[in-house]
Amino acid sequence: NQHEETPDFKSYFPNGVWLDYYTYETIKIDDKIKPINLYGGLNHTNVHIRGGSVVPIQDTRDASKVTKTWDLLSRQMRLLIVPDLSGYAQGNLVVVRGEKTDENHQYFTITHTSNTIKFVLEDGTVTDSEGSEINEVLEEIHIASTNSDIYNADFACAIGKDQSTKEMKVDKATHPIS
């Protein structure tokens, strides 16, 4: 029957760190390439993120209420940081309201090193067309690291354009990271 569960299968991964998006389990591949057993059920999509990546994510479980980019901007944003074996990750984020073609935007490069997350505004403006400041809020930053030292962190702060600092809350998750 074509609707029965698909059996587990093997997929080949190149060397590096890979994170299972749904379980946060990491796979470390030291060989040039290695076959990995994956679950093949019909209700599961295998999504793995390569180490060295910074991925912006939003909760879209109630996707029926999302009809344009503006709907997404009203939701909290999260970052998923998956460092490579050296502790480095980088990604980009574009923030735009999506209402017209010539509107203000923000284009960030986000870099993670062993003890720092840096946001650089590469292009765009921090104000919208009415002069109001665009202040996107990150709800959470998830760092899925194979380096256990990351769990020793007990302080985080944001540094503003004027060099002012704002302390941030540090919650330590207990994801199954190997």
UniProtKB/TrEMBL annotation:
Domain of life: Eukaryota
Listed InterPro entries: Glyco_hydro_31_C, Glyco_hydro_b
Domain Glycosyl hydrolase family 31 C-terminal: 9-55
Region forming the signal peptide: none
A GO molecular-function annotation: hydrolase activity, hydrolyzing O-glycosyl compounds
PANTHER family: ALPHA-GLUCOSIDASE, ALPHA_BETA-GLUCOSIDASE AGDC-RELATED
Protein name: Glycosyl hydrolase family 31 C-terminal domain-containing protein
